[in-house]
Write a structure and sequence with these properties.
This protein is mainly α and 327 residues long. It is 53% helix and 7% strand. The strands form two sheets. A three-stranded parallel sheet has the order 1-2-3. A two-stranded parallel sheet has the order 4-5. Strand 4, helix 8 and strand 5 form a beta-alpha-beta unit. The longest helix has 30 residues. The radius of gyration is 20 Å and the shape is globular. The two termini are 28 Å apart. The mean pLDDT is 96. The structure holds adenosine monophosphate and tryptophan (TRP).
């Protein structure tokens, strides 16, 4: 922690149920490998999750589940910093200062806001300003690189714009971060609706593989995955989204290119069976580690992360207060 020679990596995930295969392949898996080369800070963003209505108690439980998932996939709370966003009050404070240099028009252009505001009955102001809180999460830790899936590209570009604008008004105060989006796996699609991204929403149960699914459930979901009628195995995400998604899943699991994987198959059945098998062997060791984690141990790990995070956050927030002349 705090190795000045290593780039600082920061990323976040919302506590909204257990992690799915899209989260894992698009983002969280890279957080684990980056532990060897970066100083990693990983945050369970409970304040972001409150931007849509939740039942009382739901977030607390989901936060614990997300922490277990992240530890089970290999985030090491000793080597990295793993913590809960709301425990560090500076996130909310910095978000306000960043909102003051964010244009209404910039937020209105965010596609995630457009999508989420269409699918929710109650559209909160927080859902609208969500990207400014995300920018605060990132710059509060002098972050150099942000490993995320493709759906976060626009938020990361906005983060850079906000940080640059803040610096041009107040001096070189904030580090301007870069995103890191993987070449393969950055956009895993829903198995039932392969033109939509895989997500945690309740109507996507059969299209989404959760890291807690049993081998039988995974086999069934893959067997039923929507493909097409032309019967040809070819990597062509535009015209063959279902088949291309299966090829991507198998390719990412085996570390090959999807085009290379495609050469080995002539029929959809064997491709689905092998993709299921590859996913199961990826997930089974994670489930075994997860089963050994008890709540008390995980709580203690989160507390350790909170203490480490606070050290950085208070320093950067002091710098921001000085810059905006509110010290
Ligand atoms: P969320 O669950 O929205 O908090 O997302 C956590 C991380 O997973 C972010 O970096 C997302 O970009 C990534 N992610 C979410 N869904 C997918 C998906 N279907 N494919 C690839 N990455 C994803
Ligand atoms: N908005 C991100 C998502 O939905 C979650 C997030 C919040 C995040 N703060 C972050 C991701 C900071 C990266 C960095 O996936």
């Amino acid at each position: 922690m705090n190795d000045p020679l290593r780039p600082r990596a920061f990323s976040g995930i919302q506590p909204t149920g257990t992690i799915h295969l899209g989260n894992y392949l698009g983002a969280c898996r890279n957080w684990v490998t980056m532990q060897d080369t970066t100083d990693g800070i990983y945050c369970i963003v409970d304040l972001h999750a409150l931007s849509v209505p939740r039942e009382p108690g739901e977030i607390r439980q989901a936060t614990l589940e997300a922490a277990k998932d992240l530890i089970a996939i290999g985030i090491d709370p000793e080597r990295s910093t793993l913590f809960v966003q709301s425990r560090i009050r500076e996130h909310s404070e910095l978000a306000w200062h960043l909102q003051c240099v964010t244009a209404f028009g910039e937020l209105r252009r965010m596609t995630q806001f457009k999508d989420k505001s269409e699918s929710n009955d109650f559209v909160s102001a927080a859902l609208f300003t969500y990207p400014a809180l995300q920018a605060a999460d990132i710059v509060l830790y002098d972050t150099d690189v942000v490993p995320v899936g493709d759906d976060q590209r626009q938020h990361l570009e906005l983060t850079r714009d906000i940080a640059n604008r803040f610096n041009s008004r107040f001096g070189e105060v904030l580090v301007v971060p870069e995103h890191r989006i993987p070449a393969a796996g950055a956009r895993i699609m829903d198995l039932q609706n392969p033109t939509n991204k895989m997500s945690k929403s309740a109507d996507a149960v059969n299209g989404t593989v959760m890291l807690t699914d049993t081998a039988a459930e995974i086999t069934k979901k893959l067997k039923r995955a929507v493909t097409d009628n032309d019967g040809e195995v070819r990597f062509d995400p535009e015209n063959k989204p279902g088949v291309s998604n299966l090829l991507t899943l198998l390719a990412v699991a085996t570390g090959e290119a999807p085009e290379t994987v495609a050469e080995r198959y002539e029929q959809y059945g064997p491709l689905k069976a092998d993709a299921a098998e590859a996913i199961i062997s990826l997930i089974e060791p994670i489930q075994a580690r997860r089963a050994e984690l008890d709540d008390g141990t995980v709580d203690a790990m989160l507390k350790m992360g909170e203490d480490k995070a606070r050290e950085v956050a208070t320093t950067v927030m002091d710098r921001v207060r000085q810059a905006v002349d509110l010290h």
